[in-house]
Every structure is written in C-alpha cells, then in structure tokens.
C-alpha cells in the first residue's frame, strides 16, 4: 500500500496548525486545552471530589501534544500541573503545601505528561514528517500531474494504481477508468519481442527502457517511449512507469530522417554538381588555355601598367622569344622604338574611352619588333576587361608579312594580267553571272565601236538595242541565243560565227566568238568570259571560196557525167571486145585447124607450117586481148578492201601452176600468215601475174626456186616474189612496167608484156609502190607495198602489213 | 532409145560450122537444130513463128546457148525458157565467148546448168564440145518431163 493521499476534515485544522505562523496557535492551544481540561475536571467534582485531579489534564496534554507537538505539550503539562495544583489539588485555589501523596501524584503526573509530551512531540514530528512527506508527495503528485509525460504505477503483475494527468491526456483514458485495470491489457501494449519478454526483463533487471506501441482510448496506435522501474523495496512491489508519446516524435524523427536523407542526397547532388561545375570550369579553363595556346594568332595580355601577363605560344613564335622571358616585362619591348610612345598613348586612350566593361577595337596594321631585332607588320586588335577593379588589355596579333607580300604579288600579277588582256589581239569581254558586262579590252571596244569603257558596262539586254545578231544563214538570233547568253547558261563556245550589225551606223561584220564560264577554286562559277575576233574579211573570203567551190562542183559534176558517159562507152567497148574480137579469132583458129586436119594430105610442109603460124598468131592475139581486158578491168572495177591472206593465195596459185606442169620440180618457199588489207580479186590477179612470171622465167632452171615473203626496206614493209630464173638487165628496169614492154623475145619466153603493167596498176590502186631488181641469169625480185592508208585509232598510218 | 535433139542457139555462122564439126568429130550424132537468134530459139521451143505447128512435146535433150544474139539475147531466152513448166529442167549450157563475170552470174541466176567459154584454140574448142556432149548427152541424167 502506498501513501494514499486522502483529504481529511481535520486536515484543514492541522494544516493551519502546521503552518509556520502557528506558534501562537499551538501554545495557545496548550493554554486553552488546559483551561478546558481544568474546567472539565471541576465539572467532574461531584463525581470524583478530590480524586484523580489530573484526570482531564492528561487529556488536555494529550490533545495539546497531538495538536501542538512537544513544546506546547510541555507547556500544557506545566500549565496543567500548575492549574491542577491550584485548582484541583486540595487545598484548592492555593499554592499552599499539599499532601505528600499528592506530590507523588504530581510527580507521576509530570512524568506521564512529560512522556505524553514527548510522545506528542514525536507524534507531531512524525505527523509533521508525514505531512511533509504527504505534502511532498502531493507536491510530487501535482508535479506528476503537471508533466505531459504519462506516469503510472501498477502493482507488480497487478492493476494500475496510479494514472496521472499526462496518462489521461496521452492515452485518452480517464484515471478513474484506468485504475484497477492491467496496463498492458488496457492499452494493448505491443513491443518487439513480446510483452512477456518485457516483463521478464523488468523482473530481471529491475528497469526497462524502450519504445512500445500502445492503443489509445479511441483505438489509435501510438508509439511511446517508456521507462519502467520495478520497485522491489516497497511492501508490495510495484512498477513505476513513465511514458512519452513519441509517435509524433517518431514521425518527426522519420520525417527528419527523410529530410536528412533528402538533404544528404541534395547535398550529395549539390556536391556532385559542384564537383562537375568545378570540373567543367577547369575544363573550360583548360580549353581556353588550349585555345589560347593553339591559336594561330598571337595573344598577349597586359595589365594596367602595360606589363605582360599572358603570352601564348603563337606569340612566342611570332616574336621569337619564350613566354617566361617576357612575362612581367613591359610590352614596349615588342614594339619598335619609334612607335613606343604612340602605342602607349593609344592604349591609354583606349583604356579611357572603353566605357563598357569589355570592348574591342582594331588597331589596324602596326609594326612589331621580334626578339632578334626584325621589324615586321602585324594586324592587331585590342580589347579590355576589367577584373576586380584592374584593367587587363588583350591584344591579338597576326603576322601579316606574308599577307602583305602576297598582296603585293597579287597586285603585280593583276597588273600583268591587265596588260595581257589589254594587249590581246582578240577582243575580250567579261561579264558577271547576271549578264552585266564588266569589262571590254581595247580590241573588244574597237570591235563594237565603243569609245570608252563606260559605254560597254551595261547589261546584256541593253545591247539588243544597239546590235542585231544573226547566224551565218542570216536568221536573226534571239537574245537567249546570243553568245554571252549561251555562255551564262553554262555552254562552252568555240568558233561560233555570228553576223553582227550595228543598228545606228549600220555596219555589218562577222565575229567569231569563243566563251566560257570562269570558276573559282571551289568550282563555283564567278564570271563569264567571251573572246571576240573580227572575221569579216575571212568570212567574205570563205563565202567566195564556197561560191567557187559550188561552181567547181558543178563543173566537176558535169565533167564526171561526161566521164561516166565515156566510161560507160568503154564498158560497152570492153564487153564487145571480149566477145566480138575473140569470135573471129576463134574462127581463124578453128578453120585453120579444120584445114590442117581435113586437108593435111593436100598441103606440103610449108603450107602446113603456115597454117600452124596462123593458128599461133590467133592464139597470141587472144592472149593479148585477155590481158588487155584484164588491165582494163583492173583500172575500172571498184575496190573492195578486206583482209586477204596473201600467203594462202600464193600457195594456191603455186599449187595450180604445179598441177598444170606436174613434171617441173620447183622449190617453193612461202612465208606464212602474211595478211594484207586489199581487194581480193585484184590481188589475185596481181599474185597470179607475179608468180606466173616467176614460174615462167625459171622454166629453164634445173633447180628452180620461187620465194614469197616480206622484208623491211627503207623503214617500210615490202612483200616480194623472188625467183632464180632468167632475171633481167637492170639497165632496162624502167621499161619493165610499161604496157606491152618486153625484155625478152617471144622465142625465149612467151608473154604479152602486159602482166607487169597490170601488177603495177593494181599496186598503185592500193596506194602502194612496186619495184623490181634483177640480174641476168641470176634471177629477179619484185617487191611491193600496199599502203592502204588505214588509220589507227591514234591517228597513225599503218600499212597493210599488220599481222593478224 | 530415141536420139534427142540438140538445140544450138548461135548467131555466128562460122561458129555454127565449127561447132557442128566439133560435134561430129566427137561422135555426137544427135540431130542439131540451129536457131540463129533468140526469137528463132523461142519459136522452136514454143512452137511459134517460124516453127509454128511443131510438136512442142518433142523437147531437145540439150540446149547450147550463146549469149550474144541479135533480137532477143541469150539471157532473155534462158529466162523465158526457165519460166515455162516444160523447159524448167531442160539442160542449158551457156556456151559463149564472153568471160564477163556478170554474164556468168546472170546465167547461173537465170538457171543455166553450165557456163563454158568458147576457147580460141580450136582444139580446145573441140575438146570442150566433145566433153560437153559426152557429159550432157550421155552421162548426165535428165529429169524426164511430162
């Protein structure tokens, strides 16, 4: 049982007496109580007379001891004694001497009342202690009630005995409802590990701290932080428990944790960003440094005192010194002496005028001074930046020595070009891509009848008002067919002849135009160029020639017609010759043979021989006629060129000859695969003649040799037929190829003398040449070319000796 | 076997004489009808004009045709001949002094069976004739008509 706090009715009185200002009350109470006690005893006189005088005084002392404590009780005792002695002990109402046994009674009384006083004092002290403690307790209770924390006590394994205000608030359960219930049943306590474990732990350790979940009166689950203490020392062990609702705190904690985590994450992000931006800043710096250093132009920065603070690698190259050597040096070092002051002034002016934080100005071309003392032209531009109140000037320089040189070269080459253009014998006109004429050279101006360059600088369309152009037939050319218009469309003109007429003056000329678009290095057209030359004279001459040509053609045509007519007649003539001339010959021959056969016995030897001569003559004549006809045919027929295998032809002819005279032994050597390009029939006739001759003239040889082949001579390929026959005297070689010319008598060798003429005719018709070489009785060689003037694809002439 | 006729179309009397002699010398004993120009030849073949009334079923065994004939020349005769069903396959030997390529081509184009040039040398002429006769009259098989 704990100290229950109960409010008693006497409590108020006691409270009054226990308070500090109660001294008078307490000692007054002593007086009063003794007075009362005395009075009461006096009242009791009828009953007790003089016995027990202290009877009520004891009670008075008791009451005083109880109400006032030790001091007042002592006083009461003393007073009681006094009062008693005076009022109660006989002789009453005096302090005279008393009976001796009364003194014993008084002594007894005193001791007892002393004892009571002491008891009272003790009691009072104890009461006071108890009250103090009760007060303390109630103070504590009030405190406990004041606190927000839930405080409850319950018997060990028993019900709740105390339920503070905080618990009411926290759990939403009134104290009246809670007391007497078992806490974990009432509140549906749940804890990780189980309530039993908690209880066991509490029993074991005497203390348990932790977070548990409970249900409130309205069913909400909350988390509380609780501290339980098992108080074993008390008469009945009890558990003291304080709990705090940490639901909110938990949630807040969680929220905080989350926020923390978020914050952390954000911080991480931010740190990463920072790192990244740092990195990118670094990168940018590096890039910038890279740019600055890789720039082809020199970049130099100076501070407000004109000292160099930045000097990139291009600058090192340009001024031919190391950056290390010039950093911190005045920039004047890089400027030729004579310009230093001017430059300094410029910078200062610039520094002053540059109202904005950054501004650029081009300084144009200035002179720089290299480390080795060389002065050179540079193009410079300057900018300024204010950084932390300090001005920094940056100059960007480009060495334009080369450029200046190039400009100079360009100027001089332009001048050259200009001279050339002006001094051309042809007219030159230049226009832009829209057809605006930009330039005419002197000749062009003269040709068009312009006095000044300005006159020509019009658009092409304006020229239509001044000139009329027509083609060589006289058909007027519309503007889009004008030479320049065609060039502007992308055509390349060359040798375009145009009739041009000046409208006002009326002169008429003939111009020859050439023209093309001019492209830049990228292949884009930039302008059109037209060349003009006056070919009026030439044109006239050409017209005249044409006219003459036409006349000539007519004359040739008529002549040809005449010739053709003649040819026709000749054809007819040949034909009739072939037929009509032979017929009588045949008859002569025939009848003379008939005579010989049928009337031989009537003729003597002479007569028979005459007849034989007759026959022979007619046969000769027939041969002659044949040969003549052949010759005529050779001249007349149209040549049809084709590939001809001369070797095969020669072989065939030789075989035929051999067959006709099988008894002859002739060594024939024919080179293989000699192909030519010519008329098959004519070549056949030619080869027949040549080989036939060789055959004929080797008839008297025992060992006849006939060769056909090719050999180079005088840089050309000749074909030849060689024999080792009778040969001929070189003195008469000129007569060899004449018609009817013979160098042998008919007795030696028969023949009409036309054969070689025919050969020559055939060779000539092939565009070749024929030669003969011979030695009497040693043999003869006839060699020929057949230049067929067949052009190869690269325009060289090849003769017919191409082997295939 | 009935000895068939040889039609000799020849304008030149001398050639005629010589040819006949040659044929005789070659022992060719067929009757030889001589037409002296193209018209006569056609008259004979078709039974017209001078030969009107002739039995045209009697067809010659061989025609020796000269080309250069008056009035209608040899090639025309040949053409007319070949156009006729009866004489389509009749052996025709063009026997001429012309050695012109065109004549040769034209003759064959028009359906001549052979083209022989009259040689100037008479011996050769005779030999040629003999051979002709031998070949066309004896050796060669002729498609029989009608």
Protein model, in words:
The complex is a heterodimer of chains A (804) and B (146). Chain A has 804 residues and is α+β, with helices and mostly antiparallel strands. Chain A has a 6-stranded antiparallel beta sheet with strand order 12-11-16-15-14-13. A 5-stranded antiparallel beta sheet of chain A has the order 2-1-5-4-3. In chain A, strands 7-6-10-9-8 form a 5-stranded antiparallel beta sheet. In chain A, helix 2 (23-43) runs parallel beside helix 5 and helix 20 (536-598) runs antiparallel to helix 21 (605-636). Chain B has helices at 13-25, 38-46, 74-83, 101-110, 122-139; strands at 6-9, 32-35, 62-65, 92-96, 114-117. Chain B has a 5-stranded parallel beta sheet, with helices on both faces. In chain B, strand 1, helix 1 (13-25) and strand 2 form a beta-alpha-beta unit. Chain B is globular, with a radius of gyration of 14 Å. Chain B starts with 5 loop residues before the first strand and ends in a 7-residue tail after the last helix. The model of chain B has no long low-confidence stretch (mean pLDDT 83). Chains A and B meet through helix 20 and helix 21 of A and helix 1 and helix 5 of B.
Can you give the helix content of chain B as a percent range? 40-55%
Terminus-to-terminus distance of chain A:
146 Å
Please describe the biggest sheet of chain A, giving its number of strands, its sense, and whether it closes into a barrel.
6 strands, antiparallel
Q: Quote the beta fraction of chain A.
A: 15-25%
Strand order of the largest sheet of chain B: 2-1-3-4-5
Largest sheet of chain B: 5 strands, parallel
Mean pLDDT of chain B: 83
Give the class of chain B from helix and strand content and strand pairing.
alpha/beta
What is the global morphology of chain A? elongated
Q: Outline of chain B, from the CA principal axes?
A: globular
Give the oligomeric state of the chains in this entry, treating copies of one chain as homo and distinct chains as hetero: heterodimer
Number of strands of chain A: 25
* Tally of separate helices of chain B: 5
Distance between the termini of chain B: 17 Å
What is the helix/strand order of chain B? EHEHEHEHEH
Mean pLDDT of chain A: 83
Largest beta sheet: strand ordering of chain A: 12-11-16-15-14-13
Low-confidence stretches of chain A: 791-804
User: What percent of the residues of chain A sit in helical stretches (DSSP H or I)?
Assistant: 40-55%
Radius of gyration of chain B: 14 Å
Structural class of chain A: alpha+beta
């Amino acid at each position: 049982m704990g100290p229950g706090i109960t409010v008693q009715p006497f409590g108020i009185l006691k409270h009054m007496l226990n308070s500090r200002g109660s001294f008078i009350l307490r000692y007054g109470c002593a007086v009063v109580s003794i007075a009362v006690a005395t009075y009461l005893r006096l009242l009791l006189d009828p009953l007790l007379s003089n016995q027990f005088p202290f009877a009520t005084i004891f009670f008075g002392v008791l009451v005083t001891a109880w109400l006032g404590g030790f001091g007042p009780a002592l006083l009461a005792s003393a007073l009681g004694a006094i009062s008693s002695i005076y009022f109660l002990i006989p002789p009453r109402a005096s302090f005279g001497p008393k009976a001796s046994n009364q003194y014993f009674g008084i002594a007894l009384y005193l001791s007892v009342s002393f004892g009571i006083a002491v008891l009272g004092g003790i009691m009072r002290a104890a009461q006071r202690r108890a009250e103090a403690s009760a007060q303390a307790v109630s103070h504590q209770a009030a405190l406990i009630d004041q606190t927000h924390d839930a405080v409850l006590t319950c018997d060990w394994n028993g019900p709740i005995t105390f339920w503070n205000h905080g618990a009411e608030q926290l759990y939403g359960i009134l104290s009246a409802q809670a007391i007497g219930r078992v806490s974990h049943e009432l509140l549906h306590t749940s804890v990780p590990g189980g309530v039993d474990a908690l209880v066991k732990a509490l029993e074991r350790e005497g203390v348990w701290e932790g977070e548990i979940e409970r249900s409130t009166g309205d069913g909400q689950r909350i988390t509380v932080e609780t501290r339980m203490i098992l108080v074993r020392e008390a008469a009945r062990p009890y558990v003291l428990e304080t709990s705090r609702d940490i639901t909110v705190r938990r949630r807040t904690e969680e929220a905080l944790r989350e926020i923390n985590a978020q914050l952390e994450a954000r911080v991480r992000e931010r740190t990463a960003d920072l790192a990244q931006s740092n990195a990118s800043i670094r990168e940018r710096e590096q890039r910038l440094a890279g740019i600055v250093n890789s720039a082809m132009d020199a970049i130099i920065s100076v501070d407000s005192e004109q000292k160099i603070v930045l000097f990139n690698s291009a600058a090192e190259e340009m001024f031919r010194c190391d950056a290390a050597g010039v950093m911190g040096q005045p920039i004047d070092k890089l400027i030729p002496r004579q310009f230093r002051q001017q430059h300094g002034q410029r910078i200062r002016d610039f520094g002053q005028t540059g109202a904005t934080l950054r501004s650029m100005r081009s300084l144009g071309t200035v002179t720089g001074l290299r480390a080795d003392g060389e002065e050179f032209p540079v193009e410079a531009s300057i900018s300024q930046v204010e950084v932390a109140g300090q001005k920094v000037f940056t100059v960007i320089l480009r060495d334009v020595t080369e450029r200046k040189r190039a400009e100079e070269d360009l100027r001089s080459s332009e001048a050259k070009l200009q001279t050339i253009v002006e001094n051309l014998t042809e007219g030159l006109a230049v226009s832009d891509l829209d057809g605006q004429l930009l330039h005419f050279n002197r000749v062009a101006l003269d040709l068009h009848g312009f006095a000044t360059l300005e006159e020509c600088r019009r658009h092409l369309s304006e020229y239509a008002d001044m000139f009329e152009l027509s083609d060589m037939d006289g058909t007027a050319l519309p503007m889009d067919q004008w030479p320049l218009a065609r060039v502007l469309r992308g055509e390349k003109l060359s040798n375009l002849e145009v009739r041009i007429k000046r409208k006002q003056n009326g002169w008429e000329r003939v111009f020859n135009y050439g023209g093309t678009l001019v492209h830049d290095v990228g292949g884009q057209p930039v302008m059109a160029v037209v060349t003009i030359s006056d070919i009026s004279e030439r044109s006239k001459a050409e017209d005249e020639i044409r006219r003459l040509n036409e006349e000539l053609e007519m004359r040739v045509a008529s002549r040809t017609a005449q010739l053709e007519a003649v040819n026709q007649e000749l054809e007819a003539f040949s034909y009739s010759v072939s037929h009509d001339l032979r017929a009588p010959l045949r008859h002569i021959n025939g009848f003379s043979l008939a005579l010989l056969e049928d009337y031989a016995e009537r003729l003597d030897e002479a007569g028979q021989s005459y007849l034989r001569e007759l026959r022979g003559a007619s046969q000769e004549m027939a041969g002659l006629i044949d040969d003549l006809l052949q010759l005529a045919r050779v001249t007349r027929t149209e040549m049809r060129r084709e590939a001809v295998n001369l070797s095969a032809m020669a072989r065939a002819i030789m075989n035929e000859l051999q067959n006709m005279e099988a008894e002859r032994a002739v060594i024939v050597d024919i080179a293989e695969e000699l192909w030519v390009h010519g008329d098959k029939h004519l070549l056949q006739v030619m080869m027949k003649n040549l080989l036939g001759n060789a055959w004929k003239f080797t008839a008297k040889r025992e060992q006849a040799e006939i060769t056909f082949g090719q050999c180079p001579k005088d840089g050309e390929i000749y074909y030849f037929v060689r024999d080792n026959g009778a040969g001929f005297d070189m003195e008469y070689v000129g007569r060899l190829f004449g018609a009817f010319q013979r160098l042998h008598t008919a007795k030696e060798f028969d023949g009409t003398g036309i054969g070689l003429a025919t050969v020559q005719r055939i060779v000539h018709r092939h565009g070749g040449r024929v030669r003969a070489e011979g030695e009497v009785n040693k043999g003869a060689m006839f060699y020929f070319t057949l230049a067929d003037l067949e052009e190869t694809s690269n325009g060289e002439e090849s003769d017919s000796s191409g082997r295939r | 076997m009935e000895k068939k006729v040889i039609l000799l179309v020849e304008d030149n009397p001398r050639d005629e004489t010589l040819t006949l002699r040659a044929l005789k010398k070659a022992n060719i004993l067929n009757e030889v009808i001589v037409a002296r120009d193209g018209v006569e030849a056609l008259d004979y073949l078709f039974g017209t004009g001078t030969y009107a009334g002739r039995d045209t079923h009697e067809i010659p065994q061989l025609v020796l045709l000269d080309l250069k004939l008056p009035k209608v020349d040899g090639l025309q005769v040949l053409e007319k001949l070949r156009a006729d069903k009866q004489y389509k396959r009749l052996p025709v030997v063009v026997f001429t002094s012309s050695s012109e390529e065109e004549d040769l081509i034209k003759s064959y184009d028009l359906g001549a069976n052979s083209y022989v040039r009259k040689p100037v040398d008479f011996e050769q002429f005779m030999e040629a004739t003999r051979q002709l006769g031998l070949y066309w009259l004896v050796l060669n098989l002729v498609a029989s008509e009608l």
